[in-house]
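Entry 12.
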Amino acid sequence: MSLDVRHLDVSIAGHAACRDLNFRLTSGESLVILGRNGAGKSTLLATLAGLHSADAGRIMLHEQLLFNYTQRELAQQRGYCAQQQHDAFAATVLETALIGRHPHLGRWAWESEQDRTAAMQALAKVGLDDLAERQVQTLSGGERQRLAIATLLVQSPSLYLLDEPLSHLDLNHAMATLKLLNEIVSNGQMLIAVLHDPNLARRHFDQALLMFGDGTWACGPAAEVINQDSLEHLYGHPIRSINNHHDYWFIPE
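Predicted 3D structure (tokens):
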């Protein structure tokens, strides 16, 4: 399994998010995207999901151009979690998680008992199995975010794309979610996530993509790309670097 991005130009409303972007992910690898607000991180993630058109370049998923997939085929291969979740209709937590199985079902097929078991297992992984019959509109922001991740687990794609998966989460659930994302990668899937904490990004991801907001970027191993100089350039703010037994922590001055 692989994701190849070559010479990619992405913009929104005339603003360049990235120019001539190149990177490659293979099975069991993760990449984190860092950048200021408005740098184009979400736009790039949507482009990788096939939901926003690139200006130039190509995206290859498993050696096939992304736009050569049908929508159904693409939904079977990549899972996308946006920043905000919109629930237009009343549904339970379990029913919402089962949406992840829809790309794998026939046109008129109903979810099987096996699908329901998979959904309950996913809810248990995010600590929501005891809320399976709750109406989704009654969930807190953090609970709804965890449900979105559970829905992706039920979808079981080879490529996970998550836009700020830690938003609305308290410390306990944020760390549990990072552990779960690490498990996904260790099981052979590929994962790309937008984060705002460079310390968590450096500790939990293999590669890092820094988007500087003017179309320029830096990409490479997270332990190399995320450093004091690059973060000061990225955020335009003085950063203090603390070295604790070869583990670096970055604190704004």
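Annotation: The chain has one domain: 2-252. The longest strand covers residues 15-26.
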